[in-house]
From TrEMBL, chain A:
Protein name per Swiss-Prot or TrEMBL: NitT/TauT family transport system permease protein
Matching PANTHER family: ABC TRANSPORTER PERMEASE PROTEIN, ALKANE SULFONATE ABC TRANSPORTER-RELATED, MEMBRANE SUBUNIT
Gene Ontology BP annotations: transmembrane transport
Subcellular location: Cell membrane
Cellular component GO terms, alphabetical: plasma membrane
UniProtKB keywords: Cell membrane, Membrane, Transmembrane, Transmembrane helix, Transport
Family note: Belongs to the binding-protein-dependent transport system permease family.
Membrane topology term: Multi-pass membrane protein
Tagged with keyword Nucleus: no
Segments traversing the membrane: 100-125, 137-157, 164-182, 202-219, 226-246, 258-277
InterPro entries in the record: MetI-like, MetI-like_sf
UniProtKB/TrEMBL annotation, chain B:
Cited InterPro entries: AAA+_ATPase, ABC_transporter-like_ATP-bd, ABC_transporter-like_CS, ABC_transporter_ATP-bind, P-loop_NTPase
ABC transporter domain location: 3-236
Keywords annotated in UniProt: ATP-binding, Nucleotide-binding, Transport
Pfam families to which the protein is assigned, alphabetical: ABC_tran
Name assigned to this protein: NitT/TauT family transport system ATP-binding protein
């Protein structure tokens, strides 16, 4: 008898389950949908950060297991503590500020100089043809290779640091601007010309707006370069800045602080890029799905 | 006469060749004021080249083009061009695209938007003013392009295969709309097409061009008793169609290129 009742309850349970799954299948309740959505979002976030979490774990574990020498690569937790101390002392803020001012100044000057120049070169074909070999030559000369020249001429002060960032940032902006102007759809130019637009209005109403997205791509690249070159620029004769911090910490064997500086500069670069990508997208909404 | 094309020739310098390439040779054609003229010819015979000359976007190598008796020396707002690939400014909304010609004409700002709205309505696009070109279908984009050319009120509308990229249904409805607009506005229209049906359906006259180098072979008068009802079902439609087809056949054979029929 007992066995019979067990099977009956099992059957009942199975039926109840089937019923539940049927109702869930036909009309998923708000709660299930909400749960499912949250789960999916969590998985997406998880997938994106998985590699970073893994790297952090490895960074923490390997030095602790003495697989790598903790003197040269301290565990992540120690680096984070050093970072926290730097933050509390206000030192980190000062260095970051010094670096940002240089980066932004160099980048801003590059924008101001390179965009008009690029527009001019792109618009006047003879100028472009004349300058092209020169542009190719300079473009393929790494900014860092020229750094000593800047130091030689402009000294060790701020001028040479901002100048080298300006130099590095100017190229992607200049080349993208030239390409943008020359890449404007000739049909649009023809269409505007058919409505009697003179060259100046044509430039203002067609060439410029058509070129904006490509120019912005150049600015985004320049943003990345400004951080990349920064460290090198600050390694010679600086008294503040993240590059100086990294270099100084290494020199004084304050290894966790050195890594803290490196981490800060990575995150800074990442944030700047994120910001510029956002900005770029906003300026080229009309270019999507074309 | 609205447009007079007199002994017009056009040559292009070809890279690597010592002799220039003749695209048009001694083209003579008069377009009457308020007329709807269609222009057919085999591919590469120089139809677009001729349209560029009429628009003032290029200069003829020989001969002259007169608009209202004065020599055409450059582009102007007395002529509106509609291109096959729409040529809308992708960073401007439909409304703002239509306003473009009005800005060129220095129409005051408030009046601009009002007029652009009116013309978008005329082509059946009210409610789509704030859409960007990439958010519109091909047919809608061409409507915007037509509205843009109409809005600055040119005397002459120059259209280069404007409906070629559209599906048959959209094309037919746009053809009807164009006829309706033409009848209402009384503009002179020069309409280039590959389609024989389209040429006969739209044109009061059909000009047939020879193959390279392009010349005007014949100009056919298309005379329907009335434009009401289904023209395509009219017996005369078939006759005209056949006539144009016969004229084109020899030219296509000469150009040894295919002209799609229909
Ligand atoms: N800018 C140019 N330079 C050199 N040759 C040209 C130029 N524009 C047109 N051509 C030549 O002139 C001829 C006529 O060209 P066009 O575009 O006017 O032909 P079309 O009749 O419009 O042809 P389709 O029906 O295919 O559009 C072609 O052989 C073309 O190669
Ligand atoms: Mg053509």
């Amino acid at each position: 008898m007992a066995s019979v009742s067990v099977t009956t309850s099992q059957v009942l349970a199975r039926e109840a389950l089937q019923e539940a799954s049927r109702t869930a299948g036909t009309a998923p309740g708000l709660l299930t949908r909400l749960l499912r959505g949250t789960a999916r979002a969590a998985v997406a976030v998880g997938r994106r950060t998985a590699a970073i979490v893994a790297l952090a774990a490895i960074w923490e574990v390997l030095p602790r297991l003495d697989v790598v020498d903790p003197t040269f690569l301290p565990p992540l937790s120690q680096v984070l503590v050093a970072w926290w101390d730097l933050l509390l002392s206000g030192e980190l803020l000062d260095h970051t500020q010094a670096s940002l001012v240089r980066s932004l100044a160099g980048c801003a000057l590059a924008i101001v100089a390179a965009i008009p120049l690029g527009l001019l070169i792109g618009w006047y074909r003879p100028v472009a043809d004349f300058l092209n070999p020169l542009l190719e030559l300079f473009r393929n000369t790494a900014a860092l290779a020229i750094l000593p020249v800047f130091v030689l001429i402009l000294g060790l002060g701020e001028t040479s640091k901002v100048s080298i960032i300006l130099y590095a940032c100017a190229w992607p902006i200049l080349l993208n601007t030239i390409a943008a102007v020359r890449g404007v759809d000739p049909l649009l130019v023809k269409s505007a010309r058919s409505m009697g637009l003179r060259p100046f209005r044509l430039f203002q109403k067609v060439i410029l707006p058509a070129a904006v997205p490509t120019i912005f791509t150049g600015i985004r690249l320049a943003g990345a370069y400004s951080i990349l070159v920064l460290v090198a620029a600050e390694m010679v004769g600086a008294k503040a800045g993240l590059g100086y911090l990294i270099n100084y910490a290494q020199f004084n064997f304050r290894v966790p602080e050195m890594y803290a500086g490196i981490l800060t500069i990575s995150v800074l670069g990442l944030l700047l890029n994120l910001l510029l990508v956002r900005l770029e997208r906003r300026f080229s909404t009309w270019r999507v799905s074309r | 006469m609205k447009l007079q094309i007199q002994g017009v020739g056009k040559e292009f310098a070809v890279r690597g060749a010592d002799r220039p390439f003749t695209a048009l040779d001694d083209v003579n054609l008069d377009v009457r004021a308020g007329e709807f003229l269609t222009l057919v010819g085999p591919s590469g015979c120089g139809k677009s080249t001729l349209l560029d000359l009429l628009a003032g976007l290029a200069v003829p190598s020989r001969g002259s083009i007169l608009l209202d008796g004065t020599l055409v020396e450059g582009p102007g707002l007395d002529r509106g061009v509609v291109f096959q690939q729409y040529a809308l400014f992708p960073w401007r909304t439909a409304l703002s695209n239509v306003e473009f010609g009005l800005e060129a004409k220095a129409v005051p700002k408030r009046e601009r938007a009002e007029r652009a709205r009116t013309y978008l309505e005329l082509v059946g696009l009210s409610g789509f003013e704030e859409r960007y070109p990439h958010e519109l279908s091909g047919g809608m984009r061409q409507r915007v392009a037509i509205a843009r050319s109409l809005a600055f009120d040119p005397d002459v509308l120059l259209m280069d295969e404007p409906f070629a990229a559209l599906d048959a249904q959209t094309r037919e409805s746009l053809q009807e709309e164009l006829l309706r607009i033409w009848q209402r506005t009384g503009k002179t229209v020069v309409f280039i097409t590959h389609g024989i049906d389209e040429a006969v359906y739209l044109g009061q006259r059909v000009a047939v061009m020879t193959s390279r180098p392009g010349r005007i072979k014949r100009v056919l008068d298309i005379d329907f008793d009335s434009r009401e009802g289904d023209l395509r079902a009219d017996a005369r439609f078939g006759e005209y169609r056949h006539e144009v087809w016969t004229l084109l056949r020899d030219e296509v054979a000469a150009a040894s290129e295919v002209v799609p029929v229909g």
